[in-house]
Write a structure and sequence with these properties.
The chain is α/β, with parallel strands linked by helices. About 40% of the residues lie in helices and about 10% in strands. The strands form three sheets. The protein has an eight-stranded mixed β-sheet with strand order 6-5-7-8-10-9-11-12, sandwiched between helices.
Length: about 575
């Protein structure tokens, strides 16, 4: 077949005459839009044109910081097909926007009288099950130039059979969808009073503060980061381990972390592969020290001659628990009032207080990385930080292999899977990182699979952030290294849970004080064999073909391991803690 193809190619070669000179006009398409920020036009655009060598050092940020929210200027246009929304059958559940790895599916509730001069092709629907939205319309809009065409949204849709979302060839509808998205972007954000962002249905209305990254089409990691930023991004400080998440998370010249209309968004940093936990720990200590110092200065202000003028504001700031988004926003308003007062006051240390007043607003500190970091090279630091008792949240994006460096086995790689350094199939079971930290007793631990149960994942993120101590979330993240079409990633996550290989649970030490078992097992008993899950993925099938007997043995051993471990979790979840109530 290959020889015939070569012969056919040789027979079909035609000469093309190339003129010695070009006489036509060269029209260069603008790299970024004219309304882009000055830095983006001068620096980012030059880098996108591969002309970075022409940039003078004087244009580089002097302090090493880089502006966020710049991936939206790339418009890579790599998708062949994009999802098209059918508002007539959509149930407005939010599952598609939750599943979208690149945050291209956006949703808003917009008042009807605000839809002036809307494009004729803009689709809307009557809001379903939303009180107070009677005078509004529901709009689901895709960013066509940022979509990668992975199809994860269609697979996640409960109304897939009725084609609430359907993949269609992009070119015929590109221009109209570009116009629709540009119009949609200028519409006001949804009124927070109309939704509860602690639900999947409500979260779809929150602008994600992680968008249009360069992650693989269908990536299993990014939906977790998107959920994190939608929940806490306005006050998040993130330390990222080197790996896939640092490459698509901070790979210049553009940055997918972005900000709200008021300018608030995640602060992000990457140091090394192995020290994300330690970096997050340092961030936490710094935030705590600045907060402590700000409160000391507040006490001085209160006891000074200026104190009576601002007593009510100071008391409101000090008494605010900042547990909910509403309380966070109220704190911001009071801190703003405090700052306005300080600027015109005679308080001797007003400049000092102004320099740290932002730290009176609660910060959410996260360490983020893959299993190579958490299970292997950075495990010692991760253990040190979790054992410190400090309020640091760690998110492990578990692809079960060193994805970014080429697919090497890690301690997270499961038994029977083939990877580099385990080409004959890994002989030992995956390290149970979650169980290790459950034994500490004072760490919030959760295992999630956003594609299998997004509601459980959402609960875990909220509980971990509210827990006043260290937390660890381990997120199942399907990956191209697993060897299958990632359009089926959602289904594989469901199978991983259904066979008991990836039991979902939340371990919350706060429940012990209430006399409740801290371990809440969110998975049902296994309903399918492990082999049904494994045979879908090339990492297992490679061994099934190269050494069927060994593959069979390791699959059988894996099934026994799963049965034992699931039963252990069930026993732990059934222990009576009523005598431990405080």
């Amino acid at each position: 077949m290959n020889i015939k193809a070569v012969d056919k190619a040789l027979e079909s070669i035609e000469e093309v005459n190339v003129p010695e000179t070009f006489s036509g006009a060269i029209e260069e398409k603008p790299v970024v839009p004219e309304d882009a920020p000055e830095f983006v036009k001068k620096v980012t655009a030059t880098l996108l044109k591969n002309e970075g060598d022409k940039l003078p050092v004087s244009l580089m940020p002097a302090d090493g910081t880089w502006p966020t929210g710049t991936t939206k200027y790339e418009k890579r246009n790599i998708a062949i097909n994009i999802p098209v929304w059918n508002p007539d059958v959509c149930i407005q559940c939010g599952r598609c926007s939750t599943a979208c790895p690149h945050s291209v599916i956006r949703v808003k509730l917009v008042k009807k009288d605000e839809l002036k001069n809307a494009p004729s092709t803009l689709k809307t629907a009557t809001p379903k099950g939303i009180k107070g939205a009677e005078d509004s319309v529901y709009i689901l809009q895709i960013s066509p130039e940022d979509c990668t065409g992975c199809g994860a949204c269609v697979e996640a849709c409960p109304m897939k059979a009725k084609e609430a979302l359907k993949m269609q060839f992009k070119l015929p509808i590109l221009e109209q969808e570009k116009e629709n998205y540009e119009y949609f972007e200028k519409l006001p954000e949804t009124n927070p009073q109309l939704y509860n962002k602690n639900t999947i249905k409500g979260l779809q209305f929150v602008k994600p503060l992680f968008e249009f990254s360069g992650a693989c089409a269908g990536c299993g990691e990014t939906p977790n980061i998107k959920m994190l930023t939608a929940l806490f991004g306005d006050r998040a400080i993130i330390a990222n381990a080197t790996g896939c998440s640092s490459i698509y998370g901070g790979n210049l010249p553009t940055t997918p972390y972005t900000k709200r209309p008021d300018g608030r968004g995640p602060a992000w940093n990457n140091s090394l592969f192995e020290d994300a936990a330690e970096l997050a720990y340092g961030m936490r200590l710094t935030v705590d020290k600045y907060t402590e110092y700000a409160n000391e200065l507040l006490d001085k202000l209160l006891s000074s001659s200026n104190g009576d003028n601002v007593k009510d504001i100071i008391n409101a700031i000090k008494s605010n628990p900042q547990k909910t988004q509403e309380e966070i926003e109220a704190q911001r308003e009071n801190v703003k009032k405090l700052e306005e007062y300080l600027k015109q006051s005679s308080f001797a240390e007003k400049e000092e207080l102004l320099s740290v007043s932002e730290y009176l607003i609660k910060k959410s500190v996260w360490g983020v990385g893959g299993d190579g970091w958490a299970y292997d090279i950075g495990y010692g630091g991760l253990d040190h930080v979790l054992a410190s008792g400090k309020n640091v949240n760690l998110l492990v994006l578990d692809t079960e292999v060193y994805s970014n460096t080429g697919g090497q086995a890690s301690k997270a790689t499961p038994k029977g899977a083939v990877a580099k350094f385990a080409m004959a199939g890994k002989k030992i079971a995956k390290k149970d990182l979650a169980m290790i930290y459950i034994t500490y007793g004072y760490i919030y631990v959760a295992r999630i699979a956003i594609g299998a149960d997004p509601n459980q994942a959402l609960k875990a993120f909220i509980e971990a952030e509210q827990f006043e101590g260290p937390s660890l979330i381990i997120a199942y993240s399907h990956c191209i290294a697993h060897g299958y079409n990632l359009i089926e990633g959602q289904e594989q996550q469901k199978k991983a849970v259904a066979c008991g290989y990836w039991p979902l649970f939340r371990y919350n030490p706060d429940l012990i004080k209430q006399g409740k078992n801290p371990l809440q097992l969110d998975s049902k008993d296994p309903s399918i064999p492990f082999e049904e899950y494994a045979k879908k993925e090339n990492r297992y099938k490679m061994l099934m073909k190269s050494n069927p007997e060994e593959a069979k043995r390791l699959i059988e051993e894996s099934q026994k391991d799963i049965n034992k471990r699931f039963n252990l979790y069930k026993q732990l979840a059934s222990i009576d803690y009523s005598k431990f109530a405080e």
